[in-house]
Specification:
28 strands, globular
Length: 650
Amino acid sequence: MAYDLKDFTAQEKIKLLAGQDTWHTEDFNGRLYKVKVSDGPIGLRTPAYNEKTDKWEDLPAVAYPSTQVLSQTWDKEIAYKTGEFLADDCIEKGVDVLLAPGVNIKRNVLCGRNFEYFSEDPYLAGVMAREYVSGVQAHNVGTTVKHYCANSQERCRFWVSSEVDERTLREIYLEPFRIAEEAQPWAVMCAYNLVNGVRMSEHKKLYSLLRDEFKHGDRLIMSDWSAVQDRAASLKAGLDLEMPYSVDGYNRLMQAYKSGEITEEEIDACAKRVLDFIEKCERTSQKRKIQSTQEERLQGALRVAQEGIVLLKNDGVLPINSGKKVSVIGHCAEYYTSGGGSSRVVPLTNPKPLHEALKDTLKGSEVTFKSLYEKHENFYVAVNEAYGKDVAIVCVNNDAGEGWDREGMKLNKNQEMLIAETAKLNEKVVVIIYGGAPIDMSDWIDSVSAVLWAGYPGEMGSQAIANIISGKVNPSGKTTESFPYTLADSIAEYSHADFMKSVYEEGLFVGYRLYDGENTAGLQTLFPFGYGLSYSEFDYGNLKCERVKEGVKVSFDITNISNIAGDEIAQVYVREVNPKVIRPYKELKQFARVSLKGGESKRVELLLDMHAFEYYSTALDCWTHTPGKFEILVGASVEEILLQQTVEIE
């Protein structure tokens, strides 16, 4: 039904501007539809009261691979499909709005929540988020794009100010939000941090930009949980809904209204947007219909993991044929591994341990397992298990989670020693890394035969890994962030940071933009942005760039020159030949995932719109480009450019 502000007193309207509790909007004892929201970037986390235990517990749900793994598929269709599956999870649990996705840029390699975010690149993050949002909302469930904006660390997140210049803010940190807005998310969630000294829950300038230029319009802006410090100031800035309910926030608004600090007109503007949000949830709730089974969603999670896991190194040991003797070592092989915090999901099933999945997949093979955590088991016994085996698989993990940043990039000393000692006893060691962000492999990578970046692969992760290791699935994921060689090669290490300020001194040169071209400053990556190995080999050719009204149409051939079917992820970068202003050497502006049978060739056609050639001018307060020559660069990663052509842009 439609709600009218005239039917509410000033006191009621003020109460409407905060949640009724942690997960619901105010309903005035049934007078309004009660909206239910839930965490869920990588699976639905819905708390419910358990009378038997007298505790609030999270309900089981499909635990999908992390957003990081999803992004490594570079697959728009699967991002959309994952959104559809998440919507069905929401419908089953009576959830109206999903508090996802997160589109923050991975500036700091140590950020504890990087696994919840898509990429260091704003274009890739924005496009994948747009498809994710579209998929969820196609099933009449809402999304909440977060955390707006420049939230690149967890340390001191409640009071640190991200100090970033306007051009960098526009081109890097706001850009994924702008692109995601093309899908019209029902809500945007503000970040905890400050930006240039102003708390994001009170940032009128950036809210106006979101509503007007990004066309968020009168859709909802809500707070992150307890992100509001001054409710009156946040209301005047345009923040509509404070979550969760706060007595102090309500009292502060009432006091500000009575004193004339805020006007009823200002209250009405926010209250109207909250009412519209509630009405939309009520209206769409009647249209919701589950369109997939739980088994189909589990298979969807398996597909994401299989497409998103990245093979970083392989000297020929993979795939492993059946009939081999295989040793699996490491406790993280036996349970579901995920990041901590609000995105952690209770799996729907009892996830299969990796060694069990390998036994089922590698028919006729002898697979043994040592966890290092079993009773009476010690390091010597576990490592000795690798001796005489055809292949030794070592599983390691690097924890990450909300509310804290990692202290470094290295694995702990025991895990590094486990890899080193195993490599002494077996020449064919495969390392599988579970984790939320790149790690320093410099001390051991040369001593092992293969490295598989599993990330947090969800509850179907073991089966996905087993399928890749056995060759049943051809690996195709590619990195969506740079892997610095060591922490000393990481951008944020060179910028000023203290308890109150984080200065984005690198400006535009985030991720591969720093390591690429002439801007490297001697810094190195172990694995570059857009990198990943396959069991197939691909050849690129016949690049054609045609100037059209909308921009530049780019077409090229990709050929699978092996006899193994596989997927290739082609990336298109743009470089201004002689820029008048400082610009990164090249920037990602299009990409395509292409499936090819052995020996098959396909023509890829992509459009670079005019925005692909623009930069943000702080002098002109707008996006613009300098007429002249631009290079179109096509390749398999940011460092492996295979085709190049120059175009003239007027």
